[in-house]
Design goal:
Length: 499
Amino acid sequence: MTMPLDIQVRIATPHEIAANVVVVGVLQAGKSPALPPALKPLDAALGGALARLLEKEEFSGKRDQSVTLSTLGRIPAEKVVLVGLGERRGLRGAAVRTFAAKAARTAIDGKAKSVALFFPAGVDPDLRAAAEGFELGAYRFTKYLTGERKPKGALETALIGATGKPGAGARAAITVGQKVGAAVNLSRDLSNEPGNVIYPESFAAAAEKVAKEHSLFCQVFDFKEIRRRGMHLIDAVGRGSSRDPRFVHLAWKPKNAKRKLVFVGKGITFDSGGLSIKPAAHMGIMKHDMSGAANVVGLMAAVAALKPRVEVHAIAACAENMPDGNAYRPGDIWGSLDGKTVEMVNTDAEGRLVLADALAYARALAPDLLVDVATLTGACLVALGTTCSGWYSNDEGAAKEFTAALDQSGEQMWRMPLLEDLREMIKSDVADLKQAGEMFGGSITAALFLREFVGDCHWIHCDMAGPASPERPLGWATTKGATGHTVLTFLAMIERAAR
């Protein structure tokens, strides 16, 4: 687990501040390279080297442009990095978060212990977003590295340069931002743990620890209780493993809550594919198949930090999908908590089964909005690639709400259609439903299958992009990965609901 950074706001200038790396944001100023007036003192301290570099690199402040200059001891910082931020109107919370995360990553790549971040002149920084970005960008999963592989140092201090004294709420904003960043990193830690460490029982124990630390309601069903309650689809998926399934329910229940939101996460702690076993080349990353469950647990840590006037529930359906003599088989017919019967087609389409029982359970909570999140289908990766997740909704009001939250969070997701004609693919000749459709439209037919279990609830389904590695710190914004993805969007939904 990455230790929290020491984040401070200081009245300083880029050429005076003592930090290993100084990162300066530059707004787009047109096609011609130009040194912003505010950076002329820095350029003078560097002997004009900065202006010459900008001209050589044709740096104009476009988004994602960057130039790096070693200072050679001419100022206290060892390195100066200019980062293009694009147009001023786009410099909102999500862009600020990404800027700070890139600054942290730049510092870490340079083995720096301290980084200073400067915003363009006239821009009042969003301190909470900056703190979130610092924590997200500084994330590393190094728990199992030893000897020479173990990092010798880490980023310890992040400074935000200011032209005047910070406002009274500055420290509170930074504290909240760090707690939100830590919550996302918690979900990353859970997902990055190997399958021999995180399995249904130990995942449930981790969720109980989060609940205890943050004074949340927590209830865990063991395999006996799962079966007693009639969660037959979770039973089917989990019975092939020596590690029994678990069902986790966390909740934040404030007085006078304005709304009730329920988030459901897929928690397949390892997915071998079951009897429909996966190719060996693709099996190792299946420790991440519980990223949806990890995300909803991390979300609850963030909710506890914000304490919104919204009732929030997180449900994680956890199982390990393994083949043995007791495993469920293609061709089997199983019941469900909802009462519908399901014909099994492929035991590697297990995520929708545990979600189906979890959604039926969540529906009984009578939520104003029901959201599920899962690394559900390879078909969505084929459709949208590894940097964008898909989402579905059965309600236009819920869809509008989710779109606004995406705009606020900056996470990249694309709405997919619930094509009614594809529903024929999940009709079974021998049961109420068939577990999976045919070769084409796999993400859509999976969403249609899940819709059968949400009843009249306003519902959002998120089919996340493929799992992130420990070295992809911005899976939620700029690179491949699902670890931690959607937490910021869900949090935005909750904050908007609390207004």
